[in-house]
Design a protein that fits this description.
InterPro entries: DinB/YfiT-like (IPR034660), DUF1572 (IPR011466). The chain is mainly alpha-helical. The chain has helices spanning 3-26, 45-60, 86-105, 125-151, 165-170; strands spanning 115-118, 121-124. Strands 1-2 form a two-stranded antiparallel sheet.
Length: 176
């Protein structure tokens, strides 16, 4: 199999893993917790999701044919908390990821050598994809950190629990 085809499969898998982690963290929060932020210069989970969705719409809509910073994007508004409920937040989250995965599903191996622009900067498509993966992964990391802070002892881990690595390697059940 050609490396371009493998890359497109791998990158879809990585984006899905980032999405899944964010969803598992956000699912542990209630309608009030999605608005919590540690201080005035930080963002709440709701605002992070709003920003990510806006970014995804801007970057991935017409991915191959238009600049990744769309003229109708209001980036500053993405940082104003207007989301009312967890359900509304998840709907916005899904809309952003839908645009991203639709664009990725339409890419072909030969597209990977093309250039696109983001804010007028020319990027090879692989670079543009990797840039967005890093961006979204960093924001999902913020969502996880905030969620862990809020949930404390009731946090349901998304990976191997602390102190359970050896049990995991032995193939023991981690649910006990």
């Amino acid at each position: 199999m050609a490396i371009g085809i493998i890359y497109l499969q791998v990158i879809q898998k990585r984006f899905k893993q980032v999405k899944d982690q964010g969803e598992k963290a956000m699912a542990q929060l209630n309608d009030n917790e999605i608005h919590w932020k540690p201080n005035e210069v930080s963002n709440s989970v709701a605002v992070i999701v709003k920003h990510m969705s806006g970014n995804m719409h801007s970057r991935w809509k017409d991915f191959l044919t238009t600049d990744g910073e769309k003229s109708d994007r209001n980036r500053d508004q993405e940082f104003v908390d207007t989301i009312a409920t967890n359900q509304e937040m998840f709907e916005l989250w899904e809309k952003g990821w839908e645009v991203l995965f639709t664009a990725l599903n339409h890419l072909h191996e030969h597209d990977l050598e093309k250039h696109i622009s983001i804010r007028g900067e020319a990027l090879v498509i692989i670079d543009a994809i990797e840039r967005q993966l890093a961006h979204y992964a960093s924001h999902v990391g913020q969502i996880l950190y905030i969620s862990k802070q809020l949930k404390g002892d009731t946090w349901q881990t998304l990976s191997i629990p602390k102190g359970k690595s050896e049990a995991y390697l032995r193939g023991d059940s981690l649910n006990s």
